[in-house]
Amino acid sequence: SLAENAEDADLYHDYNASLQFDYFNSVLVNTMDEDGNYVELGKEFILEENEHFNNLPVNTSLSNIQVPTNVYNKDPDILNGVYMSEALNEVFVENFEKDPTLTWQFFGSSTGFFRIYPGIKWTPDANGVISFDCRNRNWYIQAATSPKDLVIVVDISGSMKGLRLTIAKHTINTILDTLGENDFVNIIAYSDYVHYVEPCFKGTLVQADLDNREHFKLLVDELHAKGEGKVKKALKESFRILNEATANGQGSLCNQAIMLITDGAMEDFQQVFEDYNWPEKRVRVFTYLIGREMTFADNVKWIACNNKGYYTHISTLADVQENVMEYLHVLSRPMVINHDHDIIWTEAYMDSVLFNTQAQSLLLMTTVAMPVFSKKNETRSHGILLGVVGTDVPLRELMKLAPRYKLGVHGYAFLNTNNGYILSHPDLRPLYKEGKKLKPKPNYNSVDLSELRTAMVKGETGSLSLDVRATVEKGRRVLFLKNDYFYTSINETPFSLGIVLTRGHGKYILLGNVSIEEGLHDLMQPDVTLSHEWTYCETDIDPQHRKYTQLQAVIRYLTGKEPDLECDEELLQEVLFDAVVTAPLEAYWTALLLNETGVEEGIETSFLGTRAGLMRITRFVGTEKRVAKKFLTNSDKESIFTMDHFPLWYRRAAENPPGNFLFYIPREDTRDGKIVIASTVVTVTVNKKVAVAA
User: Cβ–Cβ contacts within 10 Å for residue 246, how many?
Assistant: First the structure.
């Protein structure tokens, strides 16, 4: 594995303080000076566009190195770490060859550099700054530390006015950014009295999810400095919160810490620790001395050193980031000493490259990560964290656990986290439109699911039935359905998978018995298409197969031209049967088209769809004369089979009695304030198997 290879590479590497090593810096690669020579760390690095990586120019033979602006890219620690981790190149390539569905693989070093595979050209921001620091990323922090309960205690006495309070606020926000859904937090401000920044959270710990973190940041911004700093009461309150959480089995039930942010002016504080934290010292206390003044540094150091914490001095805003991160290394030590290689899965986050390319609910990614420790005998007992290795997993890969065709017309699958949040669901809409741009909603990764929450959070397996009103057409129409919900946990992940089947659909699969020759003949007709979002054959495993559409891949597999393709035999059997059964309709529509009298005026298209995602489309009117130009094209997701859902005309027809026609007018988004009528559709369901429309 990546973690093992990284640890072995470090074990056999001897640190060399004068090491010179010209590595591939992802920002500088392919950069030349005025004389046409490659700049230092910027030699030639071959990049080619790759469809698997969203057509970004990448190098699938090598990884390269990103270093944030605030870290010297030729620091001896960086050079030794980069040189040592060169051994990962071979493992990255080998992993990708074994499993070509993998996306980005990486190693984030505790010294600040980030090794990413495949190698890319990294672009700084508009100001030329590279602000990305892997050590601040959620996957790094979660893998490097265990879940934690934090009480942040901030001094807002009169001596903290001006720049000191600004630095203190930035410190709090930076600490909040190191927390995730598995952590719990509260913030207490003190001067003459103890003041909870959010009175509603008085005396308790709250989950450090995105909503709560952002809420705290807004309240912290409103803090003002005045009065005298009396830290004793604030510390007592902090210990009380943490002790009660432990006694009641609440919070993270793991690490506990107090983060004290002050300019150091305090008195009568030692007794609090004797009364509440000694001799066990179960709660670590981290102290942050704010401002240039060092008069009270000894007080602040004493608190940290006598309570298993860490002392840092923050004199400017630029010092905040680096100094805040130190607490994570201290909290990680027990885990590092024990060599607990726990695999973590992060909360969902947005892959911005995929905007506009997939169904919205499938844009989300999760990262799988694992810590990397030093195995050297001389440092083993010190608990040295070398960094974190990880790989990104698109949620659509997990959703392949429940193939669309097995779920029936209204059925769907969804993923839930152990914190009760939805990771993937057909109705999850993580984007909103601002003008012509799509942007992620602020809390796109924390939509809660109420009815099944408790059971799924506990990782239970079970089922329940609910009568539901399902909205279609962006909430304009309602379907009344009776749904059966089935749920279970996914082994070795913090996720649960839910499957929803609507009564009357998805319980049985009709597998016809037709020969491959007969089925292929009808499948290869020009009016036939297969859903490009469904997986009939795995075209992503072999790079040579990525050029094929799903229909092309199916035909090449069935004709024996690509026997190595991995295909869903059951789904292909359905497709072949559906192609044969629906062939007479294509012949009928073609006859109408060739007939002198033709079809009635106003009818533009005849089409049908089957549960296997097969569609037959006959156009009676040319593109230039057609009113509904988008209808049944890939740009009109509502009218085609997607990974998320069956077409709207199919879903609505399925709830009509067989043989009855359903008339409705699909509507596009408004343009310039006017409603554009796209087309009129007639649908009919035959034996609840095939939806036919004109």
Answer: 14
